Amino acid sequence: MRRISRITVAGAATASLALALSACGGTSTSSGSSESKADKGLAIAYDVGGKGDQSFNDAAYAGLEQAKKEFKYETADVEPTDGETDADKEQRLVSLAKQGYNPVVGVGYAYAAAVKGAAEKFPDTTFGIVDDATIEAKNVADLVFSEEQASYLAGVAAAKSTKTDVVGFVGGVNIPLIHKFRAGFEQGVKDTDPKVKVISQFLTQTAEEGGFSSPDKGKSAAEGQIEKKADVVYAAAGLSGQGVIEAAAANKVWAIGVDSDQYQQEALAKYKDSILTSAMKDVAKAVYNLAKSVEDGTPATGIVKGDLKTGEVSLANSNPKFADDAELQKAIETAKEKIIGGEIKVKSS
Questions:
Q1: Are strands 166-173 and 313-315 parallel, antiparallel or unpaired?
Q2: pLDDT digits over 30-75, tens only?
Q3: Which UniProt keywords apply (predicted)?
Q4: Is the pLDDT score of 2 beyond 60?
Q5: What is the pLDDT of residues 157-177, one digit of tens each?
């Protein structure tokens, strides 16, 4: 049952707050039921790149859609704006909470300060943040993942698939979160075949410079690595990863996607034959599970971590050339079992 302690808002106040919300980022709302409810359901505020990135943000939206369908309540999803401040982000979350949405999720580590501030103002609302583990509050769930573990398996796949003994890694922004992807990938490659060289590159030093939102930057970086003989390129770069995949397809080499199963993404369909696999983290499941915990009256809080053991990080198996390679699948399964069993300790930096 939904908690009766949720905040309710008078119609006039809701209307004015909706205007305030639109001033700091576009929003869309939808209702799965014509029945009026005293409170609302899940709301998410997108990270850089917004909905349509075929990756991180779209995975969060899938979780929202699942919650809306199952719980038949009103939801909201809000786009970021260029050059916004932490105060802008906090105002967006505050507006959602005031309107009665619960839980309210900030998608991406950039929401850390905003979630902390909004959670202090609305202690009866559950907040979530994806990809941050620094907020200590009774009403905040830190939805984090062992990205290094899935990246290790991506490294195994790359080392087993390269013919040139050179593979590449393209990180969106030079931050600790993306270091986890690089570290796991490099370790997986080296543990599988020490003679394989890994070329690594970060697109920008800050997210504001477009590291997660610039396909052209991703394409240029991948082309540079391919010129250096890389024939498998792994991107952990959000929307910029689309450029990496495009470059791989144009040069007839393998790309490894990230976050979502990019082989299945409609917007990338013309490149899918070049997508070997994707190192996935189930943001959709994490977002949905948080919504369900609130719906059930037992809101999740603290660090909520997904890894290989829980099944919330994994490698996609959609490309038949990948799925049908028995030797490759055996190597990946062996590595997975060793990681889960503790025999392999995957580095995160």
A1: unpaired
A2: 444 334 345 699 999 998 778 887 778 888 999 999 999 999 999 9
A3: Cell membrane, Lipoprotein, Membrane, Signal
A4: no
A5: 999 999 999 999 999 999 999
Distance of CA 315 to the CA centre of its chain: 14
Which residues have CB under 8 Å from 340's CB, separation 6+?
308, 309
pLDDT tens across 319-329, in order? 999 999 999 99
Q: Where are the alpha helices (DSSP H) in the chain?
A: 11-23, 56-71, 86-98, 112-121, 147-161, 176-192, 215-227, 241-250, 283-295, 320-323, 326-341
DSSP letter for each residue of 175-228:
SHHHHHHHHHHHHHHHHH-TT-EEEEEEEESSGGGTTTT-HHHHHHHHHHHHHT
Amino acid at 25: G
Instruction: Kindly report whether the peptide bond that precedes residue 103 is cis, defined as omega within 30 degrees of 0.
Output: yes
For 207-224, how does the pLDDT look when each residue is reduced to its tens digit (9 = 90+)? Answer: 889 999 999 999 999 999
Residue 39: the pLDDT is: 63
Distance separating alpha carbons of residues 237 and 244, to the nearest angstrom: 9
Is the distance from CB of 284 to CB of 60 less than 8 angstroms?
Answer: yes
Is residue 110's pLDDT more than 80? yes
Q: β-strand 127-130 against 104-107: which pairing, if any? A: parallel
Q: Token digits for 121? A: 């103002």
Separation between Cα atoms, residue 217 and residue 135, nearest integer Å: 32
Q: Which of 208, 202, 204, 209 is nearest to 181 (CA)?
A: 202
Contact 138, 301 (CB under 8 A): yes
Q: What is the DSSP string of 234-262?
A: EEE-GGGHHHHHHHHHHTT-EEEEEES-G
